[in-house]
Amino acid sequence: MxxxxxxxxxxxxxxxxxxxxxxxxxxxxxxxSLDGLTPSLGLLKTVRQLYPALKIHVLIRPREGNFIYTxxxxxxxxxxxxxSLPYADGIVIGALDTEGNIDMEATRRLVKxxxxxxxxxxxxxxxxxxxxxALEQIIHLGCKRILTSGQQPKAEQGIALLKELQQQAGDRxxxxxxxxxxxxxxxxxxxxxxxxxxxxxxxxxNGVTSADTVRQILATICG
Length: 223
Fold this sequence. Notes:
Elements: E1 4-9, H1 12-20, E2 25-28, H2 41-50, E3 55-59, H3 71-84, E4 90-93, H4 104-113, E5 119-121, H5 131-141, E6 145-148, H6 159-169, E7 174-177, H7 186-193, E8 197-200, H8 211-222
Parallel strand pairs: 1-2, 1-8, 2-3, 3-4, 4-5, 5-6, 6-7
Helix pairs in contact: 3-4
């Protein structure tokens, strides 16, 4: 099994840079300055038309702020998922309750709406109360990945927990380290955690992915 870089892309320019640099999978979203929101359907359709072989995982997050969603917001996310299914290879979601636990009912509904597409539980995980318990719940709900920084501001700082989660998950679920990933630390994070996939935007201050940085990360983790 080879190592894989998932590039977090918040606009078309970033998608183009990631694809041209050799990325096999992207997370597609909008508003990276707000930690990512649901991308427009027009953007998703355009990316699919431009890059039919590119794996596209679509972030479903209707607003900025916390991950505690009302019934109406869950319905919005269900509709966004259904609209994305013809063009997406995977769905990225996350929901918590007011106590900082996984919102089991909301997550179950979102996984069901995703039909046969693999679901990633996003960095809402990093503010949940009990990561070990949450991991088991997320596996039970049918998610295939957890995107996490190891409950630290950056994944490099969360290596200890990332390694623990990877060992706990085994082959039942993929731990996807993300947060502050760059060409200098990507291999270190994978080497020290035992994870096989990693997530980063490879972007500069302008928020646009750099093709050169994507190439450097790929060379580092695959070399």
